[in-house]
Amino acid sequence: MVMSEFKDIEQQLRTRLDDLLQRTEVIEDDLRHPLDADWEEQATDLADDEALEGIDDVLRAEIQQIRLALLRIGNGTYGTCAVCGDEISHARLEARPIATRCIKCASA
Hints:
By secondary structure, the chain is mostly helical. Helix content is about 65%, strand content about 0%. It has helices at about 5-30, 40-75, 90-95, 105.
């Protein structure tokens, strides 16, 4: 595949990456807040922090997948199945831009 075919997907990935980075920054700022002196408030804050850390982990995993997809676009391997080496359909890449396997290998 010619990498110029993926300019639209590359732009979508970059936009999504920017959005995710902003969201993780907001979460990190929220997690840095000091604990309240009230024990009940501390318990609530700690539970909230645990949920935010889980969300942050999911966002960071997606950030990593997007960065790897952008790297593959940059080095010319984007759209090639990591398992069998066949071409990943453009429709699959549009639906799941971070895909590393063709539909056949992904469903196996």
